[in-house]
Amino acid sequence: MTSDNTEKPSKEFYTLCYDQYKIELEEAEKLYQKISILLILIPVIGGVSVSLGRIDIVVRLFERVDVFLYYLSFLAAWLALAVSTTFSILCVIPRTYKRIGDMGGWHDWKKKYQQYLHESGADETIDDALIRDICPKLAEAQTQNAPINESRRKCFQKGVLFASICICLLYTSPSPRDR
C-alpha cells in the first residue's frame, strides 16, 4: 500500500492480462475433458487386442514367418498402448496453477486500501490501485500457467498418436493361417 510513482497500467492492458489468464485456466479444464476420450479408448483397445490375440499358435512363433510377424505386430501394438497410457497419465497428473488470489483476500485488500486512501488523502481511486496491483499478478500467473498447459497438451497429443499407432498395428497385423 505504497504511493510510489510507478506507471499505472491502462485498462486495456488489464483486460489483455485478464483475458490471457482466463484462457490458460479454461485450457486446463478443456484438457481434462479431452483426456477422458483417451481414458476410455485405451481399455477398449486393450480389450480388443486381447480378444484378437491367439495363444494357440505361440509354439510356432519361430517356425513360421506369418506367426512371427503376427506376434511382432501385437508386441509393437502393446508397446504403443503402454506408451499411450503413460502419456495419458502424464497429462492428467494434477498441476499447480498460479492463481491471483481468492475473493476474500481481494475484498480485505480493497477495504484496507480504501482506508489507507482515506487516511492519506491521496487522489488515487481504488480502481486505479487495483488495476496497478493486479496487472503484474495476472501477467505472472499467465506466464507460469502457459508452459504447464503446453506440456499437458503435448502429452495428450503423444497419447493420441500412440493410441492411433496401436489401432493401426492391430488392424493391419497379419493373421496367421491355420496349417
Features of this protein?
mainly alpha, rod-shaped
Pairing-aware structural class of the strands and helices?
mainly alpha
Radius of gyration: 28 Å
Mean pLDDT: 78
Q: Biggest sheet, in brief?
A: none
SSE arrangement:
Layout: H1 11-52, H2 65-92, H3 103-120, H4 126-172
Helix pairs in contact: 1-2, 1-4, 2-4
Give a verbal description of the structure.
The chain is an all-alpha fold. It is 75% helix and 0% strand. The longest helix is centred in the last third of the chain and has 47 residues, at 126-172. It starts with 10 loop residues before the first helix and ends in a 7-residue tail after the last helix.
Question: What is this structure, in a nutshell?
Answer:
The protein is mostly helical and 179 residues long.
